Amino acid sequence: MHSKSSDAVASIGIALLCLAYVVITLLITPAPAHESPAVRPASSGSLDDDWVELFNGRDFTGWTTTSGGEIHWAIRNGEMYPLPEAGGSWLRTEKMYRDFELELEFFLVEGGNSGVGLRCSHAGDPAFTGMELQIYDTWGQDIHPGCAGAVYNAITPRSMALNQPPSWNAYRIRLIGDTLDVWLNGVPIHEAEKLDERGYFRQPEDKRPLRDRLPTGYIALQEHGAPIRFRNIRLRDLSPDPDPGGYEFLFNHRDLDGWEVTGAAAWTVEGGTLVGRDGPGHLFTTAEFDDFELRAFVRVNERGNGGIYCRARPNPDDADSWPVGYEAQVDQHDPRNFTGSIYDRAWASAHPGTRDGAWFDYRIRAEGGHLQTWINGRPQVDAQLDAFGSGRIALQSHHPGNAIEFRDLRIRRLP
Fold it and tell me: Which residues of the chain have pLDDT under 70?
């Protein structure tokens, strides 16, 4: 018969032998290649230094689709991935971001293909409304404008830093103004790259310069027919005018439902973009607004001219003439009433640097008679004017030969 003390010693000995077996097993058993950890970006900080989780690992809070339809993605073990029925769709954030640092990890299989959309639109292909940072199995290949790490069809990375698939990889992206820096698995692959004249649509002769694309927009993730997984997605917003959320679209990206045409201008919806040609003429919302904040991407053709009317009403003496209300001007060439001005009422001290043929971001805030405008995040007008009360939003196409385009036209009512 053993004593209690001898039984305890034996029990401890057995426990130590079991523990040793577990440790040895772990040491000699390699981790599966497909679950190897990614290299975390060198600059990773805590969530206390202005970083926020874009993906909470549990649900799609803060995310939607570029099509506006049902989300055909799923979540498991803190990872998001597209389902087969996603059909080439993009998942995007609900908020827009102009200047930011973004970190994420992606799991790439052999032959895998995906991408990260930056500054992209709700409508159109994110790879070309904004830009796409390529995710593609080009491990071991020479670098080119479509390889892993490339700004798709625009900027070739400095090196092939992709881990051999199947594997996890880590992106760190910093985009401020017209300057892009990217690290892939801790390796700098883009250093102070300028968003310039580089970039094309499908063929090199079909130019789509980066500098003419949207200057702000959504973060998006691509489904491209191959398995892909994302995790640990977080962002530090450095935008001069961060998107507060709470906006609603002013048009449905399909037709002119909710709008009323006056004057000679022709208005169409083309690929989700609202286009006004020739003129003079205006497109009015049927809804009225009191205090509000409006944001839109705007582009005009060479020497194009137009505007966004706030608290507007058709002219009672001539419905085809200029509306009654405030006009936030769109004109790159008027020496006084240039883009960002409230026409003949309030003027900015300096031209915002917008160009014909290039998209820019217009923000307008109206509270009583207090009117403010921003162009590409920079303040233009801050003026106290006579209050017009409530009214409609009206878009202007100014003259024959004129073309003005609007994307992501959004509004939020102020308390």
Answer: 1-48
Separation of alpha carbons 162 and 170, rounded Å:
9
Looking at the structure, do residues 362 and 388 belong to the same domain, yes or no?
Answer: yes
Task: Tell me what pLDDT residue 33 has.
Answer: 38
Q: What's the number of domains the chain is made of?
A: 2
Bridge partners (DSSP) listed for residue 309:
327, 394
Give the range of the structural domain holding residue 205, as residue numbers without chain letter.
33-237
Are residue 345 and residue 261 in the same domain, yes or no? yes
Q: What is the rounded distance in angstroms from the CA atom of residue 340 to the CA atom of residue 332?
A: 10
Q: What is the pLDDT of residue 232?
A: 98
The 3-class secondary structure across 161-205, one letter per residue, is CCCCCCEEEEEEEEEECCEEEEEECCEEEEEEEECCCCCECCCCC
**267 and 374, same structural domain?**
yes
Number of alpha carbons in the 13 Å side-chain half-sphere of residue 368: 3
Q: Which residues contact 19 (CB under 8 A, 6 or more apart)?
A: none
- Distance linking the first and last C-alpha atoms of the chain: 83
For residue 301, the 8-state DSSP code is: -
- Per-residue pLDDT at 200: 97
Whether 3 is in a domain gets the answer no
**In this structure, are residues 283 and 392 in contact, taking their beta carbons and an 8 Å threshold?**
no
Contacts of 331 by beta carbon, 8 Å cutoff, 6+ apart = 300, 304, 305, 306, 307, 337, 338, 339
Q: How many CB atoms lie within 10 A of CB 85?
A: 10
Given 214, 237, 260, which residue is the final one in a domain?
237
Largest alpha-carbon pair distance within the chain?
113
CATH code of the domain covering residue 391: 2.60.120.560
pLDDT at position 48, please? Answer: 57
Residue count (the chain):
415
pLDDT attached to residue 31: 36
Q: How many CA atoms lie within 13 A of 70 on its CB side?
A: 6
pLDDT of the residue at 23:
32
Task: State residue 170 phi and psi, 5-degree precision.
Answer: -125, 130
If you ran DSSP here, which 8-state letter would residue 97 be given?
B
